[in-house]
Design a protein that fits this description.
Layout lengths: L5 H22 L1 H18 L3 H12 L3 H25 L14 H4 L2 H5 L4 H9 L2 E7 L8 H17 L6 H19 L11 H35 L10 E5 L13 H29 L7 H6 L6 H24 L15 H17 L3 H18 L5 E7 H14 L10 H13 L13 H15 L5 E7 L4 H13 L7 E6 L2 H15 L2 H7 L2 E7 L1 H7 L1 H22 L2 E7 L11 H6 L9 E7 L1 H7 L2 H20 L7 H22 L5 H8 L2 H4 L22 H10 L10 H10 L3 H10 L1 H16 L2 H11 L5 H22 L9 H30 L5 H18 L4
Helix pairs in contact: 1-2, 1-4, 1-9, 2-3, 2-36, 3-36, 4-8, 4-36, 4-37, 8-9, 10-11, 10-15, 10-26, 11-13, 11-15, 11-18, 13-14, 14-15, 16-18, 16-19, 17-19, 18-19, 20-23, 22-23, 23-27, 27-31, 31-35, 32-33, 33-35, 34-35, 34-36, 36-37
Catalytic activity: oxaloacetate + phosphate = phosphoenolpyruvate + hydrogencarbonate
Subunit structure: Homotetramer.
InterPro entries: PEP_COase, PEP_COase_bac/pln-type, PEP_COase_Lys_AS, PEPCASE_His_AS, Pyrv/PenolPyrv_kinase-like_dom
Length: about 900
């Protein structure tokens, strides 16, 4: 049997050698020898060699200050290169079939047709799929954008080196380029000097589209069209876009004081500017390509019989796109430019209609082959991205809207809205929504916070409808939360129906979600406003932080089931918006499996899902990877719609309810009710130090003076992943599974794991997290950092971890974790000798910085770098 990882190891070894040569040239052979010695000792330490562990710890603690930063950089960059090699391996032409997913585009329709799905039904569903991937900044990519671009260059080199036709000279040139890129990475500062602004984050999102998705979308649709044509004999429409993209970058103001109406306006202009610039490139290429003279009657009439009708139309579009770019440049520079509406691309139809005219003319004149080239690619980009590139969501906390209405009612002498009952609030809001007179007096001067809420509403009102996605209300709990936003938008002059979406985040809110939406849809005025469509967002991060992953997962599942019933009864189409994070503790995990584990009927051809931070790069950072991800999303939503999972049996539900109740008690027993938990958490993890790392634009806490309850889900997860205990992703789950097994329910659990996709996915995610947890490393952090009176809690937590691992292995019947996913095990094994020294050194540096009043700059920077390195090794920040 061939070694399925041989090529991966070869690439890792080759790049590691180049990195070593770079370090040797920069810092000398003695330094490189020390790095290699520590790496080998870490490997031996993993095998249980206590002497190797002690020697490694001694070498790490004796590192002089001036060697700390280069030492950490060495291990960080090896982990980044290993990530690149692994990412490339999944799209490599040499990839073993046991490692790589089969080509998802080729597999897309096979399961459908094999499952006795009618071809016409499948085609109809495919044409109406509405998959919206919402790019979010938090926790934001820990790698700098300049480094990400160099990592992409490395992938290009690896791809070229695979070509068996390369001449010796070409091979030498590619190796030279690879060495140059790795040297550039080594000599570039890994950590941003300043925290990114919301505009920086938005620009980062746009760069992902420009470098990858702009190419991947037409490639995916061309491959999909080939499969559909082969299976059904028909082609997909030119304007079909099963997957579209939205963004929270620059629109998510929940707890982020730096996202203002002014910032959102700039991001909207930048989105549109990027789209115009990229479409201009396409049009310039088409001017060169479409030199034909023959045209249909419609195009001849449109161009008044021009001898180059296609070029005439394209030159006009080229001029309009250049004008659009000039117009937006002026706006971005703070001017209010004058421009005739007919001279720029103002609506999508301004670009789409002329292109469709050209496409139809080419097809009518027997030039379909030409029509289906770059022109069709441009039409498909337009269908996916529009002229605004990304539809921007607005997100704000429900309390900010309530405060705005309350301040207004107090000013008008109507009382304090904030203290009214829900019934009184609804009565007031509906009366004003139905009335015609303006509510807000022109002479009113609201507080700064309320003025900002109103400024955002006015900005929304000024935008073309297609520029925006949804207005999401975080911490929503009642119908008045939705109605208040609608009233504020009406008062701002918004004359189109924007989707206003309640986000249910905590355990209580999820349990109350169906009742809230029932009450909302019982309001005649609101039912008319929805036009038969309702979107609801399910929060994964905060519900998991509130109740633990197992109880949160069951609450999310149950809430979706109930919401489907409520909307079906009301005759309203439901779109569920899944606010999943990148990590398991925040609802992350393989998207394909996650979608197929949703309740039957909850997908129904429509879904919105957040894609956040570094996961955007891992899924969409390379065009080939992006094509795979687009195909996986499309196939999963198609399958969940046409071949939904079975309804869970009553006994499965009852067992899951018991597990959820016991897991939340076990989780909260530690997190909320153990008096030593918060001081232990703050001592045993770099939670305090994380706040100093310039990761994202948003503060780590919702309230500066708040405790653990106000800490955002992202730093909460990030901190525990740094000390490798991974606590939020498993605490409570193992205890509940063991209790169920002790009750004699193990045969039932095995049946659930085998036959119920929801439960199978939960156990699979637990396995992955348990395999990443490192209790011995967590114990070392404790020894270095935690006061003696608190250490009893660490012992308890490690016992809980061991109990959970035993419970999962008992359930799966395997001898080891992830026995059925050797690729994931190999991935973890490959990284450990490089992450472990970073963890040991991080614990040492945390101790130093906490003991010393003014730790040296070397120590502080090295500590920040260890945080980045462990995140790279674990492949997530939160």
């Amino acid at each position: 049997m061939t070694d399925m990882y041989a090529q991966l190891r070869a690439n890792v070894g080759m790049m590691g050698q180049i990195l070593g040569d770079t370090m040797k040239e920069h810092l000398g052979e003695a330094f490189l020898d020390k790095v290699e010695q520590i790496r080998l000792l870490a490997k031996d330490s993993r095998s249980g060699d206590a002497a190797a562990r002690e020697k490694m710890l001694s070498l790490l603690s004796d590192l002089p200050d001036e060697e700390l930063v280069p030492f950490v950089k060495a291990f960080n960059q090896f982990l980044n290169l290993a990530n690149i090699a692994e990412q490339f391996h999944t799209i490599s032409r040499n990839c073993d079939e046991l490692v790589c997913v089969p080509d998802p585009v080729e597999q897309l329709l096979g399961r459908m047709l094999g499952g006795n799905v009618d071809k016409k039904e499948m085609l109809s569903t495919l044409k109406t799929l509405d998959i919206d991937l919402v790019l979010t900044a938090h926790p934001t990519e820990i790698s700098r954008r300049t480094l990400i671009q160099k990592y992409s260059g490395i992938v290009d080199c690896l791809q070229d080196l695979e070509n068996p036709q390369l001449t010796e000279r070409e091979h030498k040139n590619q190796m030279l380029r690879l060495r140059q890129l790795i040297a550039q990475i080594w000599h570039t500062n890994e950590i941003r000097r300043e925290r990114p602004t919301p505009v920086d984050e938005a620009r980062w999102g746009l760069s992902t589209i420009e470098s990858s998705l702009w190419h991947a979308v037409p490639d995916f649709l061309r491959q999909l069209n080939d499969q559909v044509e082969q299976a059904t004999g028909t082609q997909i429409p030119t304007d079909m876009a099963p997957v579209r993209f939205s963004s929270w970058m620059g629109g998510d103001r929940d707890g982020n004081p730096f996202v203002t109406a002014k910032v959102t306006a700039e991001v909207l202009d930048r989105n549109r500017h990027t789209a115009a610039r990229l479409y201009l490139k396409d049009v310039v290429e088409l001017v060169h390509e479409l030199s034909m003279e023959e045209a249909n009657a419609e195009l001849k009439a449109f161009t008044k019989g021009s001898c180059e009708p296609y070029r005439d139309v394209l030159r006009t579009l080229r001029c309009k796109l250049r004008n659009t770019i000039d117009f937006l440049n002026a706006r971005l520079e703070g001017h209010q430019p004058e421009m005739k509406r007919d001279d720029i691309i103002w609506e999508q139809a301004d670009l789409e209609a002329p292109l469709k005219l050209l496409y139809q003319s080419l097809c009518d004149c027997g030039m379909r082959l030409i029509a289906n080239g770059q022109l069709l690619d441009m039409l498909r980009r337009l269908a996916c991205f529009g002229i605004h590139m990304l539809r921007l969501d607005i997100r704000q906390d429900a309390g900010r809207h309530e405060a705005a209405v309350a301040e207004l009612t107090r000013y008008l002498g109507l009382g304090d809205y904030a203290h009214w009952s829900e019934h009184e609030k609804q009565a007031f809001l509906l009366k004003e929504l139905s009335g015609r007179r303006p509510l807000i007096p022109s002479q009113w001067k609201p507080s700064d916070e309320v003025a900002e809420v109103l400024a955002t509403c006015r900005l929304v009102a000024r935008q073309p409808q297609r520029a925006l996605g949804s207005y999401v209300i975080s911490m929503a709990s009642s119908p008045s939360d939705v109605l208040a936003v609608l009233l504020l938008l009406k008062e701002a002059g918004c004359n189109y129906p924007i989707r206003v979406v309640p986000l249910f985040e905590t355990l209580d809110d999820l349990n109350n979600a169906a009742a809230c939406i029932t009450d909302l849809l019982d309001i005649d005025w609101y039912r008319g406003y929805t036009k038969g469509m309702q979107e609801v967002m399910i929060g994964y991060s905060d519900s998991a932080k509130d109740a633990g992953v197992m109880a949160a997962a069951w609450a999310q599942y149950s809430a979706q089931e109930q919401l489907v019933k409520v909307c079906n009864k009301a005759g309203v189409k439901l779109t569920l918006f899944h606010g999943r994070g990148g990590t398991i503790g925040r609802g992350g995990g393989p998207a394909h499996k996650a979608i197929l584990s949703q309740p039957p009927g909850s997908v129904d051809g429509r879904i919105r899902v957040t894609e956040q931070g570094e996961m955007i790069r891992f899924k969409f950072g390379l065009p080939k990877l992006a094509v795979q991800s687009l195909a996986l999303y499309t196939s999963a939503v198609l399958e969940a719609t046409l071949l939904p999972p079975p309804e869970p049996k009553v006994e499965w539900r009852n067992a899951m309810q018991r597990i959820a109740e016991e897991s939340v008690d076990a989780y909260r027993g530690i997190v909320r009710h153990e008096p030593d938990f918060v001081p232990y958490f703050r001592a045993a993890t770099p939670e305090v130090e994380l706040g100093k790392l310039p990761l994202g634009s948003r503060p780590a806490k919702r309230r500066v003076d708040g405790g653990i309850e106000s800490l955002r889900a992202i730093p909460w997860i990030f901190a525990w992943s740094q000390n490798r205990l991974m606590l939020p992703a498993w605490l409570g789950a193992g205890e509940a599974l063991k209790a169920a097994a002790d009750r004699g329910e193990l045969p039932l659990l095995k049946e659930m794991e085998r036959d119920w996709p929801f439960f199978n996915t939960r156990i699979s995610m637990l396995e992955m997290v348990y395999s990443k947890a490192e209790p011995n490393l967590a114990r070392y952090y404790e020894e270095c950092l935690v006061p003696e009176p608190l250490r009893h809690l660490g012992t308890t937590l490690r016992q809980r971890l061991a109990l959970g691992i035993d419970a999962v292995l008992q359930l799966t019947g395997e001898d080891s974790l992830m026995a059925h996913t050797p690729w994931n095990r190999e991935s973890v094994r490959l990284r450990n000798p490089y992450i472990d020294p970073l963890n040991f050194l991080q614990a040492e540096l945390l101790g130093r910085t906490r003991r010393e009043e003014t730790p040296s700059e070397h120590v502080q920077l090295a500590l920040m770098l260890t945080i980045a390195g462990v995140a790279a090794g674990m492949r997530n920040t939160g």
